[in-house]
Amino acid sequence: MKLYLTICLGLLSIAWNTIYSQNKDLDESKKRGSEIYQDFCITCHMGNGEGLAGAFPPLAKSDFLMDHRAKSIHAIKYGLQGEITVNGKKYNSLMASQGLTDDEVADVMNYITNSWGNKNDKMVTVKEVADIKK
Hints:
mainly alpha; 6 helices; 4% strand; Cytochrome Bc1 Complex, Chain D, domain 2
């Protein structure tokens, strides 16, 4: 019985440390992403993530951002041209590539998908971004 309890406590400790580490990694990524957002995204998408009506789509409570993860990563990584629909409204403006590295794209995705009413349970990783090809 004592061995069983020791094993259970050990497994619980490993699980707790894994969860804590993942949350810490996400928090650090969001912090870096916030700084990237301030430098590259805020001009068009605004400080509150609401964008500019008719010109630049909102990131706040954005169905496109949350429902089209790979397309959102692709847009940040390579830019976006052509019509998209966000929260029922059509947008057709150009988003130029900002020249961000894969780790910067992952960080800004983690920030914007966990801000302004968005909640992302799965952290965007550098590998996931690297796998998105032009």
